Amino acid sequence: MIPAFRVKVIKDGTVVFAFSVQNDSNSNGRMTVANGVHSSAFEHLTPTLEQINPSSFENDGERSKALQAAYALVSRLETPWETVCRLAMTQPALGASLKIAKDLQLFEKWHGSGQVALDYKELADLKMPEYLAKTNYTNPFDPDDGVFQYTKGCKGNLFDYLKSHPKEGESFNQVMGGVMANQASWLDIYPHQKLVETAVKDTPVVVDVGGNVGHDLERFRLAHPEIASRLVLQDRPDVVALSKCPDPVQKMAYDFFTAQPVQGARAYYMHGVLHDWSDEPARRILAMLKPAMTPGYSKLLVHDHVLPESQPHPQGTAYDLTMMVMVAALERTEPMWRDLLASAGFRIVKIWTSPLMTQSVIEAELA
Fold first, then answer.
1. Cα 85 off chain centre by
2. Do 285 and 256 touch, CB atoms closer than 8 A?
3. Are 320 and 330 in contact (CB under 8 A)?
4. What average pLDDT does this structure show over 112-132?
5. CB–CB of 89/322 below 8 Å?
6. H or E stretch covering 206
7. How high is the pLDDT of residue 7?
8. What is the torsional sign of CA 81, 84, 89, 94?
9. Structure confidence at residue 287 (pLDDT)
């Protein structure tokens, strides 16, 4: 049961909102607001939570009870996948970030600057000149020479390593399959029906480039079984061999650093592909795709994080640090995506988002 406590949200010395939470088994998740009006919890939840701070409580005991309730709320609201992300990615990434901040003495520099609020660029400026001059602390962008290679004492990129270490490669494929299976479907973000309705007869509809074992393409097939033979799954030979897509879906071994063999598809879909690569190799991947696309017809659909400039979702920042460590790559903001795609000869038509997802689908076409 939720421990009973009272909350007051105060702005400029005036109580602007107040409510109490009681151990009432018949409340059905409803709050009693100070003025006696009953309203659904969701209606007031977000604006209230954003304004609550320690001064909202009458004493520290009530603050402690509210904190206990907040911990319990997180455990009830999280999906199993969100719990895995928090435990396996977000929290380790936070620990690594704090260690780096300590090593660079950023907290001391921030204290010396007057402890004022700083954005990430201003925070970087506190240490950047000394950092570049003395420690050569630069972001890794070479997929063959990064944190992963230093830790493992190996040469070549992550995918070369996994190919030469089959046991670890099998584990990686299982993890990636689990990631794809548990993330929200791209069909809930992008109007996929239009791809089918506007596709030229008897031509490929969707090519899933680097699609792992086909979780995303299988969702599309289930929605449009009548065009299964016009769907193509592409990945490394050992991965495609484990495909979850039944015949007549086409399974094709393909290296996306080589010319795209499927010509004139309605859409070329990439989920979690470009975030594995820094800008230079990402441009090479896109360059291999361009000649296969039909101008004014073929779409490039990039399903990835599009990080906001401020207050990004913890999953997005955790992915960003994970990409840096594992593959010397990154998650990108909207301006970064626009710059990358423009430099490769594409223009963004629209960025499709959903409040239910942390990732977006970028719809682009040849410029």
1. 10
2. yes
3. yes
4. 57
5. yes
6. strand 206-209
7. 55
8. positive
9. 98
From CA 180, how far away is CA 215, in angstroms rounded?
Answer: 6
Site of tokens 């990636």: 176
Block residue for tokens 């700083």: 118
Both structure tokens of 98: 């704090």
Distance CA 195, CA 206 (A): 8
Q: Show the tokens assigned to 72.
A: 């319990």
Go through 159-193 and write b for each residue having 16 or more CB atoms within 10 A of its CB, e for each that does not.
eebbeeeeeebeebbeebbebbeebebbbebbebe
Bigger pLDDT: 71 or 209?
A: 209
Residue 158, SS3 per DSSP:
helix
Determine if residue 28 is left, alpha or beta; phi over 0 gives left, psi from -120 to 50 gives alpha, anything else beta: left
Provide the terminal-to-terminal Cα distance of the chain, rounded to the nearest Å: 57
User: Which candidate in 192, 224, 275, 303 is catalytic?
Assistant: 275
* The two three-digit tokens of residue 4, written as one number: 């009973």
In the annotation, is 275 catalytic?
yes
Residue 215 CB burial class (10 angstroms; 0-12, 13-18, ≥19): buried
Query: Residue 16 pLDDT > 60, yes or no?
Result: no
For the beta sheet containing 231-235, the strands, ordered from the edge strand earlier in sequence to the opposite edge, are 250-253, 231-235, 206-209, 267-271, 299-304, 360-366, 346-352
Q: What is the pLDDT of residues 160-199, one digit of tens each?
A: 898 899 888 888 877 877 777 777 789 999 999 999 999 9
Residues 20 and 9 sit within 8 Å (Cβ to Cβ): no
**What average pLDDT is seen over the chain?**
82
How many angstroms separate the CA atoms of 280 and 321, rounded?
Answer: 19
Alpha-helical segments (H) within the chain: 41-51, 60-77, 80-85, 91-103, 106-112, 120-130, 147-152, 158-164, 166-182, 193-197, 215-223, 237-240, 279-289, 314-327, 334-343
The two tokens of residue 136 are 């050569």
Query: Would you report the helix, strand and coil content of the chain in percent, each value rounded to 5?
Result: 50, 15, 35
Contacts of 27 (CB under 8 A, 6+ apart): none
Query: To 10 degrees, what angle do helices 334-343 and 279-289 make?
Result: 50
